[in-house]
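job 3f2a | input accepted
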Amino acid sequence: MTPKNTEYPVIPKDRGADLHNLESADSADLVLFMAGNQFMLMQELVNAFQMAHPEVETIVYETLPPGLELNQILAGGAKFRGKTYQIQPDIYSSVAKKAMQALAAKNFVNPNAYFVYLHNKLALMVKKGNPKDIRSVLDLGREDIIVSQPNAEYEHIADHIAVMYDQAGGQELLETILSRKKAAGTTLMTTVHHRQTPRRLIGGNADVGPVWHTEIVEAKRTGLAVEGVEIDRALDQREAINYYIAPLKNCRHPENAKKILEFIKTERARKIFTDYGFVVPSE
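job 3f2a | predicted structure (283 res):
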């Protein structure tokens, strides 16, 4: 389905690191919109895929928050640094089933085409040394703590975080962090949390950010001055966090879309995912 909508969403101008080969979008052999927190592994995954399928020469991929990618699909394009890109993916992935349901309702994907290919869990990212001595989710409600909080409008991780807050401290904690502290300026919203949160922590502009466990693994791997605080297993949402993926109906490269969906189920791809801290479904 091709949308007819000129109200294109705007990709923040500093998000160039999440847009790969965008200049080749019109001539690409495959276009992927991948849930943003896979940013750290995508180049390795793409390289491995192309080794298995050298005929798929040019791959364009985004690692923006899936809510922003969803808005691009629904609008038929996006604006970035003053330029309009009328780009539609062959493959879309998200950590929210509701995103897939929204696409199915508007005939962008077949309702039986999406499936779970990854799992993850939540953790708390803090500055190296944990100077504010943050030990649990309840600490995020403290008046002296500045929280870097994913925005639910763009980042589907926010839905899981809200459930975690409610389970840890009920509506009182939920409203404290998302409403009262936001009004007081001690909860700062993000658009692309996997890049903004570590930058805020290192710069002293925030004290903690709820993130995916895999982002802490990656931050340590790259030497960023941050560390992780593990969340109690009963709260870390590992049983609820599913990554969904699907081909778009009437996409430009259906055969190549099929190839990469088959590839992510292979042992080679599964090892890449687990090397970066993700959990792959059982066979």
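job 3f2a | Residues 34 and 282 are 21 Å apart (CA to CA).
job 3f2a | closed
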